Amino acid sequence: MIDEQQALVEAGQMLPLMEAFYTIQGEGAHTGRAAYFIRVGGCDVGCHWCDVKESWNAELHPPTAIGEIANGAAEYSDTIVVTGGEPFMWNMTPLTSELRSKGMKIHVETSGAYPLSGDWDWICLSPKKTMPPKPEFYEAAHELKVIIYNQNDFKWAEEHAAKVSPNCRLFLQPEWSRRDTVMLDITEYIMKNPRWQVSLQTHKYLGIP
C-alpha cells in the first residue's frame, strides 16, 4: 500500500498537502485579491529566514489525492495559488489539469529550483541563492519577487531581472524580520530604479494566513 501510494505521489496523482485555505493574497502583483492557497509540503532549498520551515519535510504531510485537493478549492474561489514548500519538487501537471477542468485561474509561487511542470496562468518566481532557478523559469515568469535581507540582495535582484522577459513585473520584498532595517533601503532603491515595485507581506499586517 505504501509503495502504491508513493508511486501515485511520484506521478503527481497525490501530493503531500500541508494545508489549504481561503484568504487574501498578501504579496506581489495580486496583493489584496481573494484566493485559495494550496500549500504543498517538501522543500530542500533551505532559506535560513523561511517562515514556513514546517513545510520542508514532505513526510510530515499526508499524501492527498489531487481530485480531493481540487474539489476543496472549487468550493471557495476561482483563483488558486499553489505554494510550498517548493511545489516543483513534484509533478504539477496532474493538479493543474484537474484545476483547469474546473475553470480555475492557477497561480504558483516558486524558487524555480526544480523543472517546470503544469499549466499556469501566473508564475511568481522568487529565486534563492542556495539553489538558483532552472533556465526555463526566466522566460515563463510573470513576476519576479526578490526577498531583500541585506544590501547584497539588490545586486542579486538585478542579476535575475536581467534574465526574465521584458513583460515580467519586478518586486522587492523585505524579509519580514528585517523589514524595519531594510525598508528605507528598498524605498530609496526603487525611487532610483522605478521599474521595480515594493511587495509587502500585507497578510501579516492584516493578521490573516
From TrEMBL:
GO MF annotation, one: carbon-nitrogen lyase activity
Alphabetical list of InterPro entries matching this protein: 7-CO-7-deazaguanine_synth-like, Aldolase_TIM, rSAM, rSAM_sf
List of residues binding [4Fe-4S] cluster: 43, 47, 50
Highest rank taxon of the organism: Bacteria
Pathway noted in the entry: Purine metabolism; 7-cyano-7-deazaguanine biosynthesis
Needed cofactors: Mg(2+); S-adenosyl-L-methionine; [4Fe-4S] cluster
Protein residues bound to substrate: 24-26, 39, 83, 209
Coiled-coil parts of chain: none
Key words of the record: 4Fe-4S, Iron, Iron-sulfur, Lyase, Magnesium, Metal-binding, Queuosine biosynthesis, S-adenosyl-L-methionine
Its EC number(s): 4.3.99.3
Keyword S-adenosyl-L-methionine: yes
The keyword Iron belongs to this UniProt entry's keyword annotation: yes
Oligomer and partners: Homodimer.
Protein name (Swiss-Prot/TrEMBL): 7-carboxy-7-deazaguanine synthase
Species for this entry: Phaeocystidibacter luteus
